[in-house]
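Schema walkthrough. Field components (list of strings):
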Amino acid sequence: MSKPYTPPMPLTWWNKNTAYRLFMLRELSSVFVALFVLELLCFVSQVGQGEEAMDQFIKSLDNPLYLLYHVIVLAFALLHSITWFNLTPKVMVIRLGEEKVPDVLVAGSNYVACLVVSLLLWWIVKG
Amino acid sequence: MPDEKITLEILRYHPETDEEPSFQTFEVPYHEDWVVLDAINWIKEHVDGTLTYRWSCRMGVCGSCGMMVNGTPRLTCAVFLNEFHPEPIKIEPLAYFPVERDLVTVMDSFMEKLQSVKPWLIRNEDEEKPLEEGEYLQSPAELASYKQFSMCINCMLCYAACPVTGLESEFVGPAAIALGMRYNRDSRDQGREQRQEVIASHDAIWNCTFVGECSVVCPKDVDPAGAIQQAKVESTIDWYTSLLPWTKK
Amino acid sequence: MAKSNEPIVWSLFSAGGVLTALAAPALIVLLGFAIPLGWITPSFEHVDGLVGHWLTKLFVVALVSLGLFHWAHRFRFTLIDIGLKSLDTLITVACYGGAIVGTGVAVYVVWL
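Field assembly_structure (string):
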């Protein structure tokens, strides 16, 4: 006679081990990144309202609470970037004949691209 | 020290008497060159002959002896006791599978999922070469494109590492999709379109959230997580090309 | 061969993932720290000219839209996987619907 026992799937399954917890943080990073793109949109909208509105918006961000918030947002954004870049070699497999282009090169090119984009954005915004 | 011991906490389940599994503790002689499977075999031989589990080759090829070792899916023939000694070792059946008895899981759902991706070479009916024309030749580069996915030994560690298999009972799962990809990538095969019926469905690749642990625990470095993401890219390209007016069927 | 419409949302999710992975950290440093703390002091004329450029407009709309689709896709699966599977349809509509609305707002703010 067979009477299999089916173990329950607890709602806290994501707290089972470090890998799952890190996965959950990675997924949650999208919330903070989304909040930031909306913030950027607010900024663009304020710039459209004129110099005063822009200055006021910038001034309001110079506040310990907002700075702390941005530290958290930056931490999650970096988590997103790092996990995204490191997983790219699994998704994008480039083969040259029998050889696979090493994962380090595929992931590494993402970091280089990120650096170039960052410097470019900085240079453009700096004025 | 000849009489050193190590503690094994093994999850037991007797369907005749138990409503749910519970742990039983065993003291086992500690040998530096023993793997966890050796310790379990010692228990079966010297302490409790009713302890039930699967094993066969003892050399990481047959894929039978997968269990949760301290919460991580491992082949017990490939985990040495010295990795944990003197701490106790907790042994459970592979996670997310129904338990038949003690450490034996019910594999029926896996077998069905494996078959559903048709993991064999498929040729179009009228394109099968007559035998006298010989074999289908393949270049080393063509072999390399799927070889990694062909190393799977069906040990199911990847399923026990994947929370999605626990959350979605219909999820086709890492090994089956990787094996489907193994045949899709094979230059001799023409069955991709048939397999896509399963692989490109919601219950297969689109249920995967890329936790990535399947590839971490795989004892053969098959990288099922990579196979699934690559299938997502290819299926997405299919989807967009099917929108093009000149690709109508 | 289209068995599932997931490719649409998955491709938007992926594009958003790439774009935000490349650009978000630098933009956060700029808007969150560099400008408010005075590390750089771009003039209003410069910022206004920059924001008015069609390339910037395109970039902002793409970043907002794809960034939101990226969120929508991940958040949808997170909610379903932490036990809200019974609300599957509602969650799916709310997440991608939110991203579509956000795209509309971004187009409105930037071009109108």
